Amino acid sequence: MMMVAVLGGAAIVGCAGQRPVLLDDASAVDAGIGMATTTETRKPAPFEIDEPVIAPGEMLASDDNPLVDVGSGDGTGSGIFPARGGVKAVVTPTGVVVPVLGQSESGYVVESPCGIETEITWGQPLPSVRVVLDPGHGGTEQGAVAEPGRTEAELNLRVARRTALALQDREISVALTRTGDYRVPVLQRARLADALEADALLSIHHNTPRAAPSVRPGTEVYVQGTSAESQRLGGLVYEEVMAALSQFDVDWVSRSDAGVVTVIDDNGEDAFGINRHPETVTALVELAYLANPAEAALFETDEYLDAVAAAMADGIERYLTTQDPGSGYVDIPRIFNPSDETGGVEGCLAPALE
Ligand SMILES: [Zn+2]
C-alpha cells in the first residue's frame, strides 16, 4: 500500500495535494519506498496501492475513524527528543502520512494534517524520499466536480497512486501528501515534502473552468517564478503528459495560453500556495479538464490512468536523471489573485491518526 498527502488548491484553477503509500516492511522495501526497518509492531495499512479507487467519504468520520476538530488537538510540548534513525515522517496506523517533530517516551510527536502537534504511539517510519506526490483537494474541498459526480479530489488521488506505483517500479522512492478523502491544508503539504527532503514535489489536479474547444489537450503546469529547476520540472512533466494525452481521440478544451506558466498575484508572488510555501522544488499540473464531459469520460478509463501515470513518472525521472530542458514554456506570467483562501487551516478536520 502507499500513502501520499495533498495540499489545498486554488479557487479556480485548481489546488495541490499528495499522500504516501503504506506497505508492510518487506513490500515497502521491494517497492522502493525506502521505509526504514524497526522493531515496532505493525498493523495492516488501510489502503491498498493496487486498489486505486477510494470511495468519497471513505476517510470521513465513522465509529472507527472519527474526525478530530482542529481545536482539540492533543498538543504536547515537553519530553520531546530528536527522532531516532533519521525518521522524517511516519505513516500512521490509519494510513495518514505526517511529519515527525520528535520522539517522546511513548511514541512519535507529529504534526497532524491540520497542523496540530500531537502524539501517536507508533507509525511506519519514512526516511527521506526523492519524490512527493500531492493529490489536490480532499475532505471538504473536493475541487472540480464532473457530471454525474466524480470529484476531482478522488480522481487526483487515483492518478497519484498510479504515478507512485510507476515511480516505485523505477526504484524512485515516493510518498503521498494525502492517502484518503480528508483535508490537508497547503502549508502542511509543503511541510511534509520539506520534512522528507524530497528532490521534487508534484501536485496533481484536473482543471475546473470552461475553456474553448481545442485540437490539443489543455494541460497546464504552474511553476515557481524564481526557480529554474521548478520550471524545468514543469517543462518535462508538461512535455511527457502532452505526448501521452495527444494519443487519445477526444474533443479537448484548452486556454489559448496553456503551457508551463508562472502564476503570480498583484504582489508578484506565486499565486498558489503549493508553489509559494515549500523549499522543495515544486510544480502543479492541471492534467486536463474535468469540467469537459468528453474528457471526464476519458478519465474513467484505465488507459487514461496508466498513460498519465507513466507520463508523469517519465517526466519526473528525466528531471532527476538528466539536464533535459523540457518544453511548453509560456513567457508571459499569468496574473491571478485568489479570492478566498482555500487550502488553509481554518475549519480543518483531521482524520484519526491511529
Ligand atoms: Zn484542483
What attributes does this structure have?
354 residues, alpha/beta, Aminopeptidase, 6-stranded mixed sheet, 7 helices, 23% helix, globular, binds zinc ion
The number of helical runs is 7
Please identify, by name, the CATH architecture of the domain at 131-335.
3-Layer(aba) Sandwich
Low-confidence stretches: 1-78
Gap between N and C termini:
17 Å
User: Overall mean pLDDT score?
Assistant: 79
Bin the helical content: 10-25%
For the largest beta sheet, what order do the strands appear in spatially? 10-9-11-17-13-15
Radius of gyration: 19 Å
Q: What is the highest CATH level, the class of the domain at 131-335?
A: Alpha Beta
The hetero compounds bound to this protein are:
zinc ion
Task: Describe the main β-sheet briefly.
Answer: 6 strands, mixed
CATH topology description of the domain at 131-335: Aminopeptidase
Outline: globular
